[in-house]
Structure formats: structure tokens, C-alpha cells
Amino acid sequence: MFHLVFQTYLKTAYRRRNRLNRRMNKEEQEHLKERLLQLRLELQEVDDLSRESTKPVELDQSAIGWVSRVDAIQAQQMSLASARRRQAQLSAVEGALRRIESDEYGYCFVCGEDMDLRRLEADPTSTRCLECAKRK
Ligand SMILES: [Zn+2]
What we know:
This protein is mainly alpha-helical and 136 residues long. The chain has one domain (25-51, 66-135): DksA, coiled-coil domain (Four Helix Bundle (Hemerythrin (Met), subunit A), Up-down Bundle), CATH 1.20.120.910. It has 5 helices and no strands. The mean pLDDT is 85. Bound molecules: zinc ion.
């Protein structure tokens, strides 16, 4: 029983290693570009909306009590953290769009192979194939 399972595993592993992803076609790249542009728009919109909440907390003692000041500071730190996350996402999106423009999109940064389209579909900003991402 174990032997059979092992053989099947080997066969699958072998097939997987030898499966090279094909180059995406123009339509597929265009579709991913649309998604990246949409993503950039969304990130920028959220950023504009949340700019308000990352303003420094008023330290006017009379205006708000100590507890609400702590609350306000915590809320501010949380929105700063998500602003930083958004900024990182945004630069990943920009990078992907730049790679599309210079025709370098869809290759793994590490091994240079074509990326799996399903992986790019899940995250159009990914820069590493599944194998290389796992090895990280
Ligand atoms: Zn790779």
C-alpha cells in the first residue's frame, strides 16, 4: 500500500517538475493589467479616505478625556499600520505595471520561468513562482 502511494507521489512530483508554464497571451496580460489598474485605483481611494484618520491626535486635555485619547491614539496607530500596508501594496502594483510596460511581466524573479497564470490571477503582483516562493 505504502509502495503504491509513494509511486504515485513520485509520478506526480516528476510531472510537476517537468511542467513548464506557457507564456501568457496578449489578452491574458491585458486582463491582468486591467486588474492591476483597478487595484491601484482602489488603493488610492482608500488612502484618500483614510488620510483624515491618520492626522495627529489632539492633545487638548479639556476636549477629550484620557481614555478616549488612548483610544484615539490606538485607532491612529492602526490606521497608520494599514496605510503602510497599502503603500507596500501600491508599490507592488506599480512595479507590476512597470514590468508590463517593459514586457518583463509574468516571469519569476528567482528562476526566470514563466509564472503560473492561476498564481498571477490570484495575485497579479506576485514576483515568484510557487516553487521559489516555497523555498524562501
Ligand atoms: Zn521561480
